[in-house]
Structures are given as structure tokens and as C-alpha cells.
Amino acid sequence: MKIIVTEDQYKKVVFKLLDNFYGPNISYKKKDSIIHIISNDGEDIFTVYTKAGRMPGCKKDMYVSTDILDEIESFISKAITRKKMFSRTILSYANEKTKLDIDCVEFFYEKKSDLIGNPMLVKYNFNVKKNKRIKW
């Protein structure tokens, strides 16, 4: 049996999950060309690059650390986090809470690469304004 989840339903689930993890009132601190998005507990959850460190075609590039991604993936399937819908949703969450108008997201995920099964980190970049994955 196949279950179909709409983008709106998915967005509600991810927003509630992130609110439970980090609190409904996240804030941010600007420091030079880097903005740190901070949870209610004072934990740095996302890093936004406005000059150096951003991908081509991005004005504000949000980096999601592997620790945060692992925490999210403990409740959501790993296959979903590498999709456009997840990228749009997490950017929408950060933009709604901080009003920063972030346009790109970047994170690393593990992928089995060789015959032995040793994991390899793969970089995932997505530009929400162009609605496409950024490739180097």
C-alpha cells in the first residue's frame, strides 16, 4: 500500500518536529559575514553564510551540520532529507522564524560508496529560488 503525503502535510510535520527539537522561538546572531541561527536553548542549529563560503548563485547559504541532520533523520527517513521537498521545507522554516530570506541550503549525508560498504560523505546543495540542485 502506497501512502501519499502532500507537501503541505509534510511541511506541518517537519515544522512541528523542528519546533519540538529547537523551540518555537528561534533567534539569530550576526557576526561579520556569518549568521548563527540559535535554538531556544542557545544551541547553534544552522549557520548562514552571506559572503565567503556560499555556493555560486546564492545570496544567503544555510549550512545544516551533520549533528542536526542526524537528529532530524532519527525521526524522518534518510531518503526524504535528500529531496527537494525537505530542502524547501527546512529553508521555509528558517525563513519563517527569522525573516532572513535565505535562498540556499547545504548539508552532507552518508552514502555507501564502495563494494565493502565504507560510508562516504556526499555534499547536497539546493537553491530554492531556482528550484534546482547546485552542482560543482
What does this molecule look like?
With 136 residues, this protein is α+β, with helices and mostly antiparallel strands. The chain has one domain (7-133). Helix content is 32%, strand content 29%. Strands 1-2-3-4-5-6-7 form a 7-stranded mixed β-sheet. α1 crosses α4 (84-98). The longest helix is centred in the first third of the chain and has 16 residues, at 7-22. The protein is globular. 25% of the residues are buried.
Task: Give the helices and strands, then pairings.
Blueprint: H1 7-22, E1 27-31, E2 34-38, E3 44-49, E4 61-64, H2 66-73, H3 78-81, H4 84-98, E5 104-112, E6 119-127, E7 132-133
Parallel strand pairs: 4-5
Antiparallel strand pairs: 1-2, 2-3, 3-4, 5-6, 6-7
Helix pairs in contact: 1-4
Features:
single chain, alpha+beta
Provide a concise account of the structure shown.
By secondary structure, this protein is α+β, with helices and mostly antiparallel strands. It has helices spanning about 5-20, 65-75, 80, 85-100, and strands at about 25-30, 35-40, 45-50, 60-65, 105-110, 120-125, 130-135.
**Biggest β-sheet description:** 7 strands, mixed
**Into which percent range does the helicity of residues fall?**
25-40%
Name the structural class.
alpha+beta
* First and last CA, distance: 38 Å
Task: Give the helix tally.
Answer: 4
User: How many distinct domains?
Assistant: 1
Fraction in beta strands: 25-35%
- Rg from Cα: 15 Å
Reading side by side through the largest sheet, how are the strands ordered?
1-2-3-4-5-6-7
Shape descriptor: globular
| Unreliable residue runs | none
Oligomeric nature of the chains: single chain
